[in-house]
């Protein structure tokens, strides 16, 4: 629809109060009145000038144009916002870092990029597609906080070459969504970004009306603050535990023979519930129970990959890079003294220190290629989460000007904390020895913004929810002296966060 429309002159209205109780109760649900103009209409007008400009650009360049508008939304709670999108979108994304400095909730799809199996260039493809869309985008305002404005949310599968089963249907080897609505909760407050990709065929007025209506519905539902509470009772089936213990023994033998240094073997626990498992309910419990972990949910169609991972893969903020070496695990103690004693034992444990060192060496090498300088402490410290404690070494670097976030993700993934060492040998042993499709388990997931900044975590302590079923995943680093029974116990501890978050009882 490339007709030159007469430009509307619109008074800019600060929509900081969107969804606030002003006028609530005086008008139909979803519409709030302010000085004779409905908020819905104001939103529509507010978005319209950008969309009209975008439509003109789309016509001139004959290509889609991204129009993105961010404003404050002080009264929105991230979890309620996530829950408010249930059912309507099938494309929700939730992200929160362990400091809860940046919580992002994406609802709906303004644009997406995907890569299929065997795709060797999946990282470059996402970056290329995104750069192409961002070129010529209209953003308002120019300055938005980190985590707001146009950005992609999603992730990658663990291994594009390994077997792909129907379990992970909907989750391709790279899948990133530019959310139609993005809520960003940061120290500075809460922001709402509305993204639209307008083509020469679109009518900006119609689009702006549709966006305003959708936003009203979501914001109204979120303001009600309803988060479903489910307590399903479920049957749990461990997938081939004996075969897994044998694989651990076999891997340890191969390591002693010098065929490889380390491999991470994982297993699956399948749950069947009496009622539909609600991702928002699981996220709520994870938020309460796992304050020191990344929280994530990636919904694709009727499935949702959810977890509370303690492990950062990489964060990029301007030219600063931050990564994490997390490997080596002990249980938590039943009281502070016992906990401290177990922590001291872990710090002295030879097998765990070696397992950890393999990870540090690889991450430092991988970062070195993209950095002008690297800082890494000499000794690991403890990182304690609710059910286990780990050896932890943070690594920081200063990136070369041309080092991109996804090029670092590609270099790092899978680190020996998730795959093994040497990488290719470990990957081929995982493909042969594990009786499961890892899908997105242990893979990079996170967000990437219009500046090239963002953050990725490793998708561990996680599960894939689909209607009444859940598949939970847990793995451990196998070394030459690994004992199959203790490694099996370690995976039991690592299932705990998701089992607890499902909130139900084992039948
Ligand atoms: C592979 C997992 O954990 C990794 C991360 C931290 C500690 C690990 C370990 O001690 O084995 C694993 O390398 C998992 O939780 O599924």
From TrEMBL:
Signal peptide bounds: none
Keyword Nucleotide-binding: no
InterPro entries (alphabetical): ADC_synthase, Chorismate_C, IsoChor_synthase, MenF
Annotated Mg(2+) binding sites: 355, 490
Superkingdom as given in the UniProt entry: Bacteria
UniProtKB keywords: Isomerase, Magnesium, Menaquinone biosynthesis, Metal-binding
Any one of the GO BP annotations: salicylic acid biosynthetic process
Cofactor: Mg(2+)
Domain Chorismate-utilising enzyme C-terminal per the UniProt entry, residue ranges: 241-494
Keyword Membrane attached: no
Swiss-Prot/TrEMBL catalytic activity: chorismate = isochorismate
Gene3D superfamilies: Anthranilate synthase (3.60.120.10)
EC number: 5.4.4.2
Residues the record marks as active site: 262 (proton acceptor), 311 (proton donor)
Family recorded in the similarity comment: Belongs to the isochorismate synthase family.
Name of the protein described by the UniProt record: Isochorismate synthase MenF
Organism encoding this protein: Melghirimyces thermohalophilus
Lineage of the species this protein comes from: Bacteria, Bacillati, Bacillota, Bacilli, Bacillales
Gene from which this protein is expressed: menF
């Amino acid at each position: 629809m490339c007709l030159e429309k007469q430009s509307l002159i619109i008074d800019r209205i600060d929509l900081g109060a969107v969804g606030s109780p002003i006028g609530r109760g005086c008008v139909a649900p979803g519409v709030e009145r302010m000085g004779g103009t409905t908020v819905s209409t104001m939103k529509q007008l507010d978005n319209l000038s950008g969309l009209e400009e975008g439509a003109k650009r789309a016509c001139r360049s004959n290509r889609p144009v991204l129009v993105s508008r961010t404003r404050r939304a002080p009264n929105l709670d991230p979890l309620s916002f996530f829950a408010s999108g249930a059912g309507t979108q099938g494309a929700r994304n939730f992200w929160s870092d362990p400091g809860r400095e940046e919580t992002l909730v994406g609802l709906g799809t303004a644009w997406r990029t995907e890569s299929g199996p065997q795709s060797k260039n999946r990282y470059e493809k996402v970056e290329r597609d995104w750069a192409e869309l961002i070129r010529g985008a209209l953003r308002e305002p120019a300055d938005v906080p980190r985590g707001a404005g146009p950005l992609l949310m999603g992730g990658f599968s663990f291994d594009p070459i390994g077997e792909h089963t129907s379990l992970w249907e909907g989750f391709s080897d790279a899948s990133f969504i530019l959310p139609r609505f993005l809520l960003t909760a940061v120290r500075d407050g809460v922001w709402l970004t509305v993204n639209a990709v307008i083509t020469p065929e679109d009518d900006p007025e119609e689009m702006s009306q549709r966006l305003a209506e959708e936003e009203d519905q979501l914001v109204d539902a979120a303001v009600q603050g309803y988060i479903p509470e489910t307590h399903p009772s479920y049957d749990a089936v461990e997938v081939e535990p004996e075969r897994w213990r044998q694989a651990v023994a076999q891997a340890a033998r191969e390591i002693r023979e010098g065929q490889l240094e380390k491999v991470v073997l994982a297993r699956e626990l399948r749950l069947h519930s009496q009622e539909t498992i609600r991702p928002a309910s699981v996220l709520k419990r994870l938020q309460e129970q796992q304050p020191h972990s990344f929280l994530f949910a990636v919904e694709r169609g009727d499935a949702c990959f959810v977890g509370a991972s303690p492990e950062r893969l990489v964060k990029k903020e301007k030219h600063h890079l931050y990564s994490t070496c997390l490997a080596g695990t002990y249980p938590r103690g039943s009281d502070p003294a016992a906990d401290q004693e177990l922590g001291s034992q872990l710090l002295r444990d030879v097998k765990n220190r070696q397992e950890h060192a393999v990870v540090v060496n690889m991450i430092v090498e991988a970062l070195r290629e993209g950095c002008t300088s690297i800082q890494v402490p000499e000794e690991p410290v403890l990182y304690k989460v609710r059910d286990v404690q780990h050896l932890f070494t943070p690594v920081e670097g200063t990136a070369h000007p041309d080092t991109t976030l996804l090029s670092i993700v590609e270099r790092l993934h899978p680190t020996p904390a998730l795959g093994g060492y040497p990488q290719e040998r470990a990957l081929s042993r995982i493909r042969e020895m594990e009786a499961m499709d890892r899908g997105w388990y242990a893979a990079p997931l996170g967000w990437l913004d219009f500046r090239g900044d963002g953050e990725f975590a490793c998708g561990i302590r996680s599960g894939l929810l689909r209607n009444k079923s859940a598949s939970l995943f847990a793995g451990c680093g196998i070394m030459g002296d690994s004992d199959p029974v203790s490694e099996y116990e370690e995976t039991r501890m690592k299932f705990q966060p998701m089992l607890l978050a499902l909130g139900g009882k084992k039948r």
